[in-house]
Each structure stands twice: as C-alpha cells, then as structure tokens.
Specification:
DNA-binding; 9 helices; mainly alpha; homodimer
Chain lengths: 199, 199
Amino acid sequence: MARTVDPARHAARRRHIQDCAAALFATHGYERTTTAQICRAAGISPGNLYHYFASKKAIFLAVLTGDEDDTSAMLEQQLAADAPVEAVLEFVTHLAAPAAAHPAVPQLVLEAMLQAHRDPEIADVLGQADAAERAGLTALLQRALDAGAIDTELDPAETAAWLSTLVGAVFLDLALQPGSDPALRLSQLRRTVRAYLGG
Amino acid sequence: MARTVDPARHAARRRHIQDCAAALFATHGYERTTTAQICRAAGISPGNLYHYFASKKAIFLAVLTGDEDDTSAMLEQQLAADAPVEAVLEFVTHLAAPAAAHPAVPQLVLEAMLQAHRDPEIADVLGQADAAERAGLTALLQRALDAGAIDTELDPAETAAWLSTLVGAVFLDLALQPGSDPALRLSQLRRTVRAYLGG
DNA sequence: GTCTATACGGAGATAGAC
DNA sequence: GTCTATCTCCGTATAGAC
C-alpha cells in the first residue's frame, strides 16, 4: 500500500509548524495566539495548517508532549548514587534546569499550567509529568531518610510536594522576571533545598 | 451642582459587578470570561455594564487594585520589632497569607501575572506592588544583617528577590494544586525561609 | 498538497427606546 | 439608568479550485 507522499517530509513540516507555534505560545500565550499568526510564522497558508493538525489545541498538546523525557533515566541514576542528599539536589537541579535553558521554556510551562486549569486534556499531560516528578522525589527522600541524612521529622511525600513547588517557583520567576539571573536562581534553589532538608 | 442620582448606590453597584467579575476571572481566567457572563453573574443587562466600566480591561484593573494595602503598615511594624529574623518571617507570612485566605485569590493573582506579560498597564499595577514587596524585604534583611542575625554572605537585594519568588511559589501551588493544604504550605514556607537565612 | 476565499460563531461594545 | 436589540470585528475551521 503506497503512501501518497513522503511521510518524512510531512513529519518535518509538521515539526516546523509545531516549533513556530511554541515560540508564539510562549511569548503571546495560547489564547492570544491566532492560527493565522502560526501560519504566517511557519510560512504556510491559513487553510493548510489543518492538513497537519486537527485543531489549534492539538498543536498546543503536541508542543507540550514534544519535550522528550530523560527524567526517568536521571532518577535511576540518582537512586543508585552514594550521597542521598546530593542525589536529591542533583535531581531537583535537573528538574529546574530547563527553566534556565531558554527564556521561552518557563513561559510556555506557565502558560500550560494556566490552560490546564481549564482543559482536562492539558491537565492530564501536565499531571502525569508532575506525578512522576513527585514520585521520584519521594523515593529519593525516603532513601535519604533511611540513611539518616536528613531531618527525621520530614514526611517524604509532603516534602516532595514542597520541593516540587520550589522548582515551580524558579519557573515562575524566570517566566515573569526578565531580569532574573537563571544561574543565580538555580544556586539559590540548591541552597534552599539543602537548608530545608536539615540533617 | 446636584448629582443626578445617589453616588453611593452607583459605587456599591460598581463594586458588586467588580466582585462578581473577580470570581469569574479567578475560575475561568481573564480571556475566557465574557462580558456577558459578568453581566449575568451581576444580574444586569449586557449593555448596562458600560455605565460602570469603560471596558472589560477596566474591570480587571479595578479588581487588581481593589485589594487594599495594609502591607506598608505591616512593614513599619516589623521594622520596629525586636527580633529581626522573626520580623522577616512575619512579613513573609503576611505576604503569603492572602493566598491561603481564599482559593480564588492565588488563581486571580496568577492570572494577573500572565496578563501582565502582555499588557503594560497590568504590568504596571503588579510591578508597583512587587517593587514595594521587595523593598520591604530588602530593608528587613539589611536590618537582620546589621544585627548579625543571618548569614553574612547573603546579599539583601538578591535574597529579597528570592524570598519574593518563594512567596510566589506558594501562590502558584495553591492556585494549581486544589488538594494542597494552605496551612501546611505556609509552615513549609516559614521553615524554608528560616533555614535559608542561616545565622 | 497547497492555495484563496469564505462560512460560521462568538465576543466586545454601541444605539436608542423606556 | 436600565433595558433589548444589534452592530462590527475577529478567529477558527472548511470548501473547493488548482
């Protein structure tokens, strides 16, 4: 059964549209970005967009799920590490690092968080990532507790939720404060986590 | 020069509309809230809205500036307090407390933060509040530094910015995680700040 | 597969009677 | 001052030629 055209070319073009849309969503937000803008940025005609995506929301979902996950690999690595507190710090740093990588990333994530509040489908995508994040943190914290490396009064799940919130803080700051120094924020985050865990 | 009607009644009705709009903005967001919804919630006809507000954005700005400021009074009080670290903690708690007061508050603030990214007028309103917040924190931290009550390596301005970010984290968490316990988050925030400041 | 043109719906804001 | 009715613009998505 022969395909009509080259599937690779189609996928590449789809990816191109997706990337252009991501930049627009990050700077202008989801609702204020029009499909016409996306088409203009991608260099295609308005109608042609729908040969690649079924709807505007489908583009947004593709953008959100497009970021590949190396988090589980990172988690395995840190669960096997020697120093349990350092392992938590490394994992937290890994989670926050994307926010510092490119200015558009935290903006896009923040936008997704708000949209998730209104759309179950988007909430699902983010919820899964968040659950994995917290589960990983909980496991690492439990290990640190067992090793007696952190304050024994800390509850692993509650602390994992809080550390996740602190990571969110870095995203929020870098998304909203253009003048913030990403490296400084990451170092402040590390000092914060280290001090919070006690030990 | 006689007024046409009772100004007090007009102000009360305006306030009523504003409150109804605030609830809608918090739950559905600014862009997804329609003027028709606001009118329905407030029990007025669609056209009548514009006798109280010039535009939809004017309503949003009124909502944002409507929250009265007792922050400066709180700051004066804490600048005169005996224990400088406790003063910082009290001030931080005061800044974060509104997030825990009512679920709609952090949602509304988050919505405003995103809109600020796209509208200079909204950015101004939030920027002024933010600047005051950081200035207050910087003053309190300088005082704690002078008293030798916190880690001498800390830079007051940078630390103030970070504490402000941490407060933002509580807002973000309570806005996005319906299951979060506000009291727990506030206590985690206090532990975090105390540990971060060292001393 | 890509284009141009347009249908369709909805949202903000206005007009004018009462 | 408040209402009903409506205007106008704009954004998504579709139709149909090439």
